[in-house]
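Re-run with default settings, no changes from the original entry. Doing this only to confirm the output is reproducible before filing.
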Amino acid sequence: MSETPARLWRDLVAASPAHPFVTSYDTSGNRVELSPATLDNWVSKTANMLVDGFGTQPGDRVAVALPLHWQSLVWLLSCWSVGAVAVPVDGDAFPDGAQTAVADAARLEAALDSGAEEVVGTSLHPLGLPLKEVPPLVLDYTTEVRAHGDHFAPYALDADAAALEEPGRSWTGTELVAAGRERAKAWGLTGRERVGVVAAPGTPLAVLGGGAALLMAAVAAASPLVLAEGGPGEVSELAQRLAMERATAVLDTSGSGVAAVAEGLRELR
């Protein structure tokens, strides 16, 4: 039987529930660390919200207008747990026909104009605090999701059904798992590494181009991720954060050049 992203994730949670998996920094230096078990609690709650709250069915499309952030990883994993198709959004170009759209505060107006049946807003606060202001017809993610159950058993899904849509192509679950394994092998990830991911503030998940494959590579290799926002003017701070987190490899999409100044840090391409 072909593997699905949800099955690969469940295997990681079962094998290493308490080890750090995602450490996330924002531009202010606020830090939050989540284990697979903690992240999975958010995944389960979000999956239950999609199914019980929004009536999401396998094959429904969910527009994900979020930057690279621990919550964007939650939304990808939740979509794949219920068989929904995740559609990362670049800018305000929301897809037609999405049943649900989730967006940060800057893109909520575009999400409301997208025609999605459900629009969810998130503050992206490191600790998951609610939005300061909730526009009409928008559900606050933090407030809404906390009412849903802590456990969710992923559906028995067709691994060859669509799981992700990017401009120009659609990925099945089987293809995502294969891409993740291939990326982990190409990068030499064995689970002993901590992979730093540096992106300019607010960079959409869609712009990273390999956001889903990156997540799948980390899941397949059980390699923890360190997510940091920054750019060329913050290379010293970025290097210090990655060193403090004991990152051994970095995927730098910001152009900061942090790998060149951080001792022992291998650059991934």
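The two ends are 31 Å apart (CA to CA). The chain has a mean pLDDT of 90.
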